[in-house]
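Entry 12.
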Amino acid sequence: AFEIDFWGKFQRADEAARARLLAVQANRGTVLASLYANVAQSYFALRALDAQVTLAEQTLATRKENLRLQTRRFEGGVVGELDVQQATAEAAGIEATLIQAQQNRRATEATLAVLVGRGPAAIVQPDIARGAAIDALFSKATVPAELPSDLLNRRPDLIAAEQQLIASNADIGQAKAAYYPTIRLTASLGYESRQLSDLFNPGSLFWNLASGLTQPLFRAGSIDAVVAGANARKAQATAQYAQAVQGAFKDVHDALNAISSSEALVVTADKRIAALREVLRLANLRYTNGYSSYLEVLNAQRDLSQAESGVIDAKRAQLAGVVALYKAV
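Predicted 3D structure (tokens):
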């Protein structure tokens, strides 16, 4: 039996099904883009933590050397016990910072191992290739100027939202087709030829239109409800598409803003680090010549260490912004 598609019911149903298939394929692209972005973000975070661990190790070595010198000066009667205790506390604080950085690095290694599909043993004891240092990665992460807005047309979530809107619009045509009569074509029991070779040839069948016309006389109310539901779903799909477009532009804006802010922070932090190194040099001279206490030296060392740690975080944030921009477009 066949139904003649005078009103486009099956055509619109096919259009809706194809659009939903494309939407599902686009959703797969959204998952992949998120996976790629998460891998990149985790890798940049790992390289930043490597830099933080290296900085903490270097700082701890400096603090231990300071403690050794202060201990010898105390034993020689040059300084009091206060200087020794201050140096001890500062070394212990940096050691705690190193332990925390190492813990965070191990957790990030495990996260990256999961993202790239490693087995359980490789997750417990991950061996992640390192590649370039955070400074080299930061210097290579450039953003093209004047990105065209039509780049957003390739975003998988926008494609999916657009296809859902197309499917919802086709659903309306399919629902409205129920208002019109259904015409079915059925084969009768006779055949034009009794030759065995023509027995199952569709052209030899007697086609019958009798009682094949079905007019929906008493279903108008239910059809109205179906059409109203289809219209409501289209309105919802339209709103979701508009929201997706707005979200896409916001993602690009936020990513560019994060990149710009992080780059400015790195420039400012570099200036501050240069100044703090000079402050530390002068503080050491003042302390050596007896013009200030050892606390002034410790404060200068602490400020410099915090600034160097901050510039690492700013570079990681800039790299994260570049990844966010990739994901946004």
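Annotation: The mean pLDDT is 86. The beta strands are 2-4, 182-191, 205-208, 213-214.
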